[in-house]
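Case study 2.
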Amino acid sequence: MRILYIVGAPRIRLDEGSNTPGPRTHVLGTLAAMKELGHSVDVYLASDQRSARRLRDTEEQDLQKSPVALAAGDLARLVIGLLARRTLKRSFGGDYDLIYERFASYQSLGKAIRRRRSGSKWLVESNGLFYKEASGSRKSIGIPWLARAQETRAYRSADLVIAVSEAIKKQIVAEARVSERKVLVVPNGFDFSYLASIQPKRVFPEGDIVVAFLGQVVGWQGLDHLVKVMASLDDRFKLLVVGDGPALEGLKARVELLQMGGRVHFSGRVPHSEALNLLAGSDIGFAGHKPTVDGATYHSPLKVYEYLALGLPVVATRSNASNDEYQPKTLHHFTSGHDEELLRALLAAAEDDNNPETRRERTAEAAGRLSWTGRVRGMLGRLEEGA
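Prediction:
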């Protein structure tokens, strides 16, 4: 199959210095799986356009500073989308069997080069209703009505929509008024080839129980709740935060207020390979997503799959992403905002067998369930069946 993979978001880069590490990991995992399965894949990144360079290197918190900054960001995305369509028509005009587009706000690019006569299919991947998330919890766009119109139109026009969780599927069906059959749920995964080069890195002494978080430090990640509960535990419990974001300084202030300075290590944003080394040297993975502004919790957090792939016990909020068919005994759920539930989950995870041999066994089990190759094989198989 000949595939064109489109990333319309102007801030997503694929180099190690990317300021969007989560999307980068998702894109690279999907691309590697497509190629491993024998497909020919061309890639178009909007971030490679000259017109996208300024927005590409802008941190999300800088877009949130003022209405003027939001308006400038919106205008830049609209111009980038227009230029991207021209570039795609000029440089990627060949016949593709599949045009796979990772959707982004104000970007709907695949339709411009889909060729129905040749049987070309346009697939749109959704990691959430972007107009809601970007105008709500992220506050990174300023014209939500326009973003909504473009996003729902893309879902209606696409031949197939990929949602990373069942909750996102339900939202797309309701908002875009499309058939449930048109939306296929494909959760996130992990590229197990990374394991060959991992060198565990420990930031606290042996004997401590290191709870690790990987990702963007924003309010809805629940880190404020975590440090509050960890403050009530004995000093063996330590916290490692791998990443940065707009809520980082507030989190550091909270750590100092709770007198936990010696129990928390902030690594900052590091290359993905280094992040995996730090996770591998930890004892528990944490994913504490809070409900969004409309009360929904719909994520399929990459971090959860990375923790599980490394054999770590995991403490995670109850969410629709928890409905993945893979539910090992070392995945401990709690309800966002409930101190006692989080406390019990942390203590239960600390009791899990964490010796190296047991972790290798967990990794081997996860490899058969969570690989990107397996996810993509199933997705393309459904596409060929006419899902």
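DSSP finds 14 helices and twelve strands in the chain.
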